[in-house]
Amino acid sequence: MNAEPVLPGPRNRRAFVRTAGAALTVPAAVGLVGGTGSGTASAAAPAAGASPALPDFAPVPAGALGPALNAAGYYVGRIDGSLYWVTDGFYQSMFLSTRDGVVLVDAPPTLGHNLQRAIDDVTKVNGRPNKVTHLIYSHSHADHAGASSIFGKNVIRVGHSECRRLLVRDADPNRPAPTVTFDKRHTLRVGGETLELAHHGPNHSPDNIFIFAPAHATLMLVDVLYPGWVPFKNLAVSQDIPAWLRSQHIAMDYPWRTLVGGHLGRLGVRADGDLQLAYTADLESSVRRAMNLDPTPYFEKYGPSGNAWAIFRTYLDAVAEQAAAPVIAKYTGVLAAADVYTLDNAATLVESFRIDNGILGPFSTHL
Hints:
Helix content: 25-40%
Structural class: alpha/beta
Strand order of the largest sheet: 1-4-5-6-7-8-9-10
Order of helices and strands: EHEEEEEEHEHEHEEEEEHHEHHHH
Number of strands: 15
Radius of gyration: 22 Å
Largest sheet: 8 strands, mixed
Strand content: 15-25%
């Protein structure tokens, strides 16, 4: 990873986002920023007018955190050559500064106008045009594309054909549909630079694409790999869990040195991908073992009343909890937020195993 900082932008970021984002970065003189407790605790419902009782979580490992944000609440740095990235500690974007203009990948609304400020920071130094001529959508979701309208009507928007269908359907003025679309592969060449776009089937979303900068050995793949962190809840709230799991391996087949994952505060390296593959493999193994949990107590408790949903809920929750426990213990202190989202991720795998893989446990074919 070769991230080179450039000049900071103006101070006009909302105070809340600036402060919260700063908590997800590493100040120059600080080695660790995170919670002060360990493990998790259930948050009780607060009384009317009272502040909620929030749980404590394990500290965030220092290696999971990114560079410090500037006064405006963002960081922009060079990945390699004319390729740059921007983060606010929550979301990430990537852009190429070319002799013919800027090619931007994604426009997360939490970054918003700071995207143009970051581009201006770079182009003031390198003397190239600061106008965004092309905007690539990694996928249609509003949290990654919701600031697209900032760049006006004349920018050339590029995305998968399914991305266009979804955005036409959604009719969100903040996310104009792409006008340049493709089904399998598309090579974008602008100002002497090249990006290779590919769709390897559904994963996190039906339209999520791989964006590869071959000259810079950099892959941008959003909501699949999370450098330094466990995946977001429910395995990134993905719509096709088996395909999402496969997409991790597809990503690792690309010859990248640097990964832009779309979230959180730092770039990724190959070891981050290997670590997430180990985490998901351990989680899959643990879920498979837990699917053998004895269902008798759950049927005995709720069966006589005819409350089928109570049987399902308590049994499946117990399976997820049993599966998550050893994975949480193994990865706490290794991957950030292992104690935050591993239970949700285990529960998602339980459902995927039942629905997608036919591992039905006590709800299998009646004999």
